[in-house]
Design a protein that fits this description.
- By secondary structure, the protein is α+β, with helices and mostly antiparallel strands.
- It folds into two domains: 1-128, Hotdog Thioesterase (Thiol Ester Dehydrase, Chain A, Roll), CATH 3.10.129.10; 136-274, Hotdog Thioesterase (Thiol Ester Dehydrase, Chain A, Roll).
- It is built from five helices and eleven strands; from the N terminus they run αβαβββββααβββββα.
- Strands 1, 2, 3, 4, 5, 6, 7, 8, 9, 10 and 11 form an eleven-stranded antiparallel beta sheet that branches.
- It is globular and about 55 Å long.
- The termini are far apart.
């Protein structure tokens, strides 16, 4: 056991750096690549505990993005058990390894494995209940594609970053539906900076599965907006996953939230209140 694990209950499970191809249009680390690293951290953590990591499935993940990582930044991940049992929850903390700043936290609930032993008290952000719109909302077709073989994880299911990349594409379509188009964002030097994910899985996608996503606006603030996405198997209609995503319109020069313009706001409110 490392000194870190003995002192805090956390063990280091990943180290890496932000590669240029992992940076998105908002000019920071792409959210899907956080999930790629957390997936690797989970695999290492479970292997170190002596359980069959390939049997584990994620059922829920609550992620808070607290500070940006940008091109060339280096980072490390620490992981601990925070709720033991047959549906355990583990926690990841991702730190900027250069500055020591806590950048991102994730609470990940698993099924398929039982984890015992002392749990660490969670000292980070909690889950805030956020209502999920029903069929009465204006749902926009936001993605139609297929899960590819190279996107599978070690157990043969669609990997966590495979889901998040698709939800990110869905964002572009729901944003465009009220005028926050790629051209608008590029011309005005804006980006969408996410600060919270509430992700839930109802089933698993595998290579070859046809995947559809519908998206809607669930909440609108001054500079903030919350989108909800629902992913389904296009062939069977079965629910696969859902995501509640909270973010802000970010001024890419100032690196600060920027108020959504009145024209876009009116269009977004029309979708929100339909």
């Amino acid at each position: 056991m490392t000194d870190l694990a003995m002192a805090t209950g956390y063990s280091e499970t990943f180290r890496g750096d932000v590669a240029p191809w992992e940076v998105d249009a908002t000019e920071h680390f792409t959210v899907a690549y956080y999930y790629e690293k957390f997936e690797g951290a989970t695999w290492r953590f479970l292997q170190q505990l002596g359980v069959d990591a390939a049997a584990a499935r994620t059922t829920r993940a609550l992620t808070h993005y607290k500070a940006e990582l940008r091109n060339r930044d280096i980072y490390r991940v620490e992981t601990a058990l925070i709720d033991a049992g047959a549906t355990p929850t583990i926690a990841h903390k991702l730190f900027n390894a250069g500055s020591g700043e806590l950048c991102t936290t994730m609470q990940q609930t698993l099924t398929g494995v039982t984890l015992s032993g002392p749990a660490v008290a969670w000292d980070g952000d909690g889950r805030e209940d956020r209502p999920i719109p029903g069929d009465e909302a204006t749902w926009v077709p936001a993605l139609a594609n297929v899960a590819r073989v190279e996107e599978a994880d070690w157990a043969g299911n669609l990997s966590l970053p495979g889901y998040i990349h698709r939800f990110s594409t869905a964002n572009s379509f729901i944003m465009s539906a009220f005028g926050m188009t790629p051209e608008y964002m590029t011309t005005n030097r804006y980006g969408l900076s996410t600060f919270e994910f509430q992700l839930a899985f109802q089933s698993q996608a595998k290579p070859g599965d046809l995947i559809d996503i519908e998206s809607c606006i669930a909440q609108l603030g001054g500079s903030s907006v919350r989108f909800c996405h629902r992913m389904r198997n296009a062939a069977t209609g079965a629910d696969i996953a859902s995501l509640s995503q909270f973010g802000v319109q970010l001024d890419l020069e100032a690196r600060r939230p920027s108020r959504i313009g009145d024209d876009l706001r009116a269009r977004a409110e029309a979708l929100l209140n339909t």
